[in-house]
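Reproducibility note. Readers wishing to regenerate the assembly model reported in the main text can use the exact inputs given here. Chain order matters: entities are listed in the order in which they were concatenated for prediction.
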Amino acid sequence: MDDRQGGNAVQLEVMNSPFDEKQARLLNELLASMTETQKIWLSGYLASSPVLSTKAPEGETKEREETETKKRTITILYGSHTGNCEELAEQLSQTLKNRDFQVTVSSMDDFKTKNLKKTEDLLVLTSTHGDGDPPDNAMTFYEFLFSKRAPQLDGVRYSVLALGDSSYEFYCQTGKDIDLRLEELGAERIHDRVDCDLDFEEPADLWKEGVLKKLDEQSASSSDRKEQVTPDTAAGPVYSKANPFRAEILENINLNGRGSNKETRHIELDLEGSGLDYEPGDSLGILPENEASLTDELIEEMGWDKEMSVTITRDGEIRSLREALLSVYETTVLTKPLLEKVSDLTDNEELKALVADQEAVKSYIYGRDLLDVARDFGPWDVSAESFLQILRKLPARLYSIASSSAANPDEVHLTIGALRYEANGRSRNGVCSVQCAERAEPGSSLPVFVQKNRNFRLPEHGSSNVIMIGAGTGVAPYRAFLEEREEREDEGENWLFFGEQYFVTDFLYQTEWQRWKKDGLLSRMDVAFSRDTDKKVYVQDRLWEQREEVFRWLEEGAYLYVCGDESRMAKDVEQTLQAIVETVGNVSTEEATDYIKGLRTQKRYQRDVY
Amino acid sequence: MSDKQPGPPSEMEQLKENSDYLRGSLEESFREPLTASIPEGDAKILKFHGSYMQDDRDLRLERKQQKLEPAYQFMTRVRAPGGVATPEQWLVMDDIANKYGNGTLKLTTRQAFQTHGVLKWHMKSQIQEINEVLMDTLAACGDVNRNVMAGANPYQSKVHREVYEWSKELSDYLSPRTNAYHELWLDEEKIVDTRTEEEIEPMYGKWYLPRKFKIGIAVPPSNDVDVYSQDLGFIAVVENDELQGFNVAVGGGMGMTHGNTDTYPQLARVIGFCKPEEIVDVAEKIITIQRDYGNRSDRKNARFKYTIDKRGLPWVEEELEKRLGYGLDKERDYHFDHNGDRYGWTEGDGEWHFTLFVQNGRIKDEENYPLMTGLREIARVHEGEFRLSPNQNLVIARVQAEKKEEIEALIQQYGLTDGKSHSALRRNSMACVAMPTCGLAMAESERYLPTLVDKLEDILDEAGLREEEIVIRMSGCPNGCSRPALAEIGFIGKAPGKYNMYLGGGFTGNRLNRLYKESIGEEEILETLRPLFFQYAKDREEGEHFGDFLIRSGHVKAVESGLDFHSEVNL
Ligand code: SRM
Ligand SMILES: Cc1cc2nc3c(=O)[nH]c(=O)nc-3n(C[C@H](O)[C@H](O)[C@H](O)COP(=O)(O)OP(=O)(O)OC[C@H]3O[C@@H](n4cnc5c(N)ncnc54)[C@H](O)[C@@H]3O)c2cc1C
Ligand SMILES: Cc1cc2nc3c(=O)[nH]c(=O)nc-3n(C[C@H](O)[C@H](O)[C@H](O)COP(=O)(O)O)c2cc1C
Ligand code: SF4
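Running the prediction on these inputs yields the following structure tokens for the assembly.
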């Protein structure tokens, strides 16, 4: 979308815009002179500024009346856990509406599967989570699609946009699966699937362009006449991922007592004047900076000049090489595609041999970073520019918000576990978490944005009971939940399961839970400290101990939340849940699975796992 | 008892009454998983079971900021009548300290063991393991009779043996009888107790005593147990190596409260003599007097010393005779010449004993002093016994001649010291625990006295007094757990870094000291003592001790009785 705004796609004229010549000329000049970020900022600004929000609708409705809408309806389905695909889907539908298409947009699981065969044009945007699994809000649809009950889809036209992370083995798996399956079922692919890595904005945009073209071709009159300046990021806040807000750090404390193996930071940020608002369940994105020492060593290994200036965007923003490697490009994560591209830039035989060997690559990239590559496969004769071309943009890190804005106006709190590990003879630090632990003094600031997460929400009724399960930093959103319910004076009951290593040092927010327990807001709390006892106990063990009660709560309509480590907790919790429904509910495995599926579709089983 | 009471019973009396003989709600409290603490009421009842809830005071502020509760933990006191422990028992204490505790053991001023830093969840296993080797923690604290002290005296083994047996007998007889302890910690069947009050606690009854009660037996010439500091003290009378019986002294105690002159340290006074076989009877009757007359409305005025001072000695003697059905004999002659320990190897009746200097009773491994490991290794081969001394030291006792070399070798190997390399001042120093575990500490004690002594040693060296025995004691608050009121130089904590300095105590623990300077810091302590040391070095008479010298030379006015402890303060 960005470049369409930029005018290099469409020139504004009196004919295709509500502007007079002078306005159109000025706008064209202005837009042409603007950088990506400036445009996005402007669009956001216009979208959210009252002037527009009151006027724009009139404009739109007027146009609606003028055009007789098109026959084919477009169905946009997304699978999204952290909101990227959801946002893209909303924008896409906005654009299409602006072009007078009939559009419905929803998450795959909110889509009535029996209507699938009735769809005409189907656009699927999905991410991949877990270890190649669909995001939670696509699971049931995904299973349906691959089940025998899936209908023939002849006559349905479709295209898929897949979001993923090439550092995972099953890159964009869900997108790939759905793409192939739709074809199998007889649907017609009108545009090739596009797989997007973490820096998905540009490729996602190209896919959208392509799809739009196809749809326009098939559709009767050219829609260009109706082209709008109204940005697709409509109604987004002024500050966004592309234009983050620099939030001042008010407080940054270590929640782990002396002698702990862990370091978990509680960080309080000042949002005053940002216009950013959030709900319990949302996440906060942080745009981190790489470690200076690592960056300098890399530059040295590669024999570059750290002061030289390099362009970092398609439309020519300039930075010094050092700044670029510090805050624009990812240098700490290796991926297979990256290694391949690197090996094209050198004639180092070793590297080429490595890249040729699937398994070797897999084991090499684990626990290594660019500096290792630089050292292992030198000497180098590569220009910084050409090297930067192949790097991914430094991705934002998300953190479950640990506060309720009702309880802490103009503030947002986070719970960040510092990630430190030893690998291949070097001690390594998580980029963002360790920046927050070591380079985030109160008084300094961090670039942040709010990442909505509609898939992790308190029940709409204050009277509903909730069961919250979280290990380690997984309790973060529950602190937000309880603060919120306390503010709202919800009378629903709250039951928290928490797990960590040691009671004495790792009982995150202990005194706050104790207070809430005493005040009765927290009806029950069960804790599992795995290393205090000879026999390790985890949250799922406590859950099992309480199975009768847990099942009773569920039967009585309780909402169940799981947050925290995907591989090491969420999976086991789900198995335990399955077992509980089976044994206590006394039903077959299939019925238990359906029961849990049921919870999911009723939004009574929500997960925020990472 | 109400007619004898000055006012309504204190909360604690209610608590005891409602505790169902020391059960309280301890069982539930110890199961509660969200906090490592227990409620205040239960914490008070827990004392009767030998344990105190504490928290690491070094971490209080830090943890508060971290949204963590205080580092709650439990101190456990293990009774060892007469301070005697077998090597097997030693090894268990060592193991517990490292497994559940903070990796150290504290040998207390009453010859007991203490572990620190034990978590709520480990208390049960700890107490069970202690009981498995026939030691217990019951009544190590609380309003009952405490660990019965007996001279660690390594000289006359035969007498020591007898005296020790009597201390055990007293200890056993005076222990509470409730089943609570066994139910709570030792998983004994909860039997619905159909016994009447008289049967459950024949001597104590459901209110137990108004306050703690302490008994110690001294064997002259050593007054290591500080017999005058005991609620009830026995002084062994030995004639040609035969134990004749005991002089009976009553009404001693150290505790007081800053700024409350109704509270004061007091010396026990001898009221007569009893035969060995009468000792238990005498102790029981005296305790029942305190049970019936002790102040149950104001705990600060509830110790036996106040009960007596309110009514006078003759009254006690009368009351005692009434209860005994016979009177005590006339006091026999005895003589003390020190209350400190005598270090190194000594022989008695063909057995050898090594008295080890343990700084402030803390057994731990330090970088260049692996005391804990060394003692563990010794315990593994030792066939005799250990004796915890009332001065927080340790006697490796009853070593057979043929074993001596082996033990000596280990002593050498681990560089364990008999203190001879230290100044005589350090060898006669004692400090209470205080920070960071003691909840009542107002200032450092155990962690500070050693460095203060370093600095005093420099002055003593200058004055040529390095080998002069001077008793110095420090307590972190006026409770006086290191018996500072009996020291020639006593320090009592007032505030962090600030101490009241008391001077003029008697070398044999026979005279209280007097306040000399109030709330002073290190610099002033050194400045004040320096000239006194030099004068002492210059003007002392043959064999005259520092405390006595200060009185003769008029620097301090002698305290005759605890009642004038607060009067005519030297300031
Ligand atoms: C461990 C020990 C000091 C030491 O370094 O060895 C000790 C330590 C404590 N004493 Fe003591 N007392 C210890 C011997 C004494 C003595 C000396 C003696 O008994 O020979 C005294 C003075 C004699 C007396 O009782 O008058 C003593 C007088 C007190 C008092 C004041 C009693 C009074 O009458 O006012 C308290 C506070 C209280 O009881 O209210 C106290 C209370 C305490 C407590 C339990 C603090 C508390 O109540 O919370 C201390 C625990 C500190 C810790 O972290 O371990 N401790 N305490 C001694 C253990 C003895 C034992 O094995 O039973
Ligand atoms: C929706 C969501 C919510 C989240 N909420 C929170 C939260 O509330 N609190 C929180 O702390 N985190 C949270 N996270 C995780 C967070 O976003 C970051 O992933 C985390 O902080 C690590 O980021 P980093 O930049 O510090 O580490 P990075 O620099 O991104 O490094 C992480 C990578 O290091 C590698 N690695 C890790 N350990 C090892 C090892 N032992 N050996 C070899 N390689 C290893 C792995 O490849 C891992 O992907 C959340 C994530 C999501 C998606
Ligand atoms: C816990 C977790 C697991 C992930 N697993 C995969 C994976 O297996 N394969 C993949 O290609 N991407 C994976 N990703 C990357 C996401 O697909 C990527 O961040 C995407 O932009 C998220 O889009 P969404 O916000 O719409 O969910 C994972 C991300 C997270 C947080
Ligand atoms: S004297 Fe005071 S500070 Fe020292 S141990 Fe006793 S109670 Fe604690």
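We highlight two features of this model. The longest strand of chain A covers residues 245-254. Chain A touches chain B through 23 residues (CB under 8 Å).
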